[in-house]
Amino acid sequence: MPQMSPRLDRRVTFERQGAGRNALNEPTGAWESLATLWAARTDLTETERAAAGQIGAVRAARFTLRRSDLALGLTAADRMKVGGHVWNITGVAARGRWVDVLAVSTGRKEEA
């Protein structure tokens, strides 16, 4: 039986931090938008969260995107916003014509 395509029903904005470092060599640049794409969201089970080392008061999810150069170029240094919430990317994996982006969020609306 052929695998069904994921339902791409969420708008996800990917961001990358701009150049700039402080005296401790920490990034200080403003977050800049890379693109807004359609994605499907799947919340991770407790077993998947534990395997990813994400225990505690965080949400963990997999966002599935159509394969593209932009999606393949995402890294853990990037972040995304979904419905006003900030998600930190923890992993990116290509899977056929799809790209899975694993991310965690504490539920905050904006990062200071």
Automatic annotation (TrEMBL):
Q: Where is this region: Disordered?
A: 1-26
Q: Which residues cross the membrane?
A: none
Q: Which InterPro entries match?
A: Phage_SPP1_head-tail_adaptor, SSP1_head-tail_sf
Q: Which Pfam families match?
A: Phage_HCP
Under the heading NCBIfam families, the entry gives:
gp16_SPP1 (TIGR01563)
Identification of the protein by name: Head-tail adaptor
Give the originating organism: Rhodovulum viride
Specify the taxonomic lineage: Bacteria, Pseudomonadati, Pseudomonadota, Alphaproteobacteria, Rhodobacterales
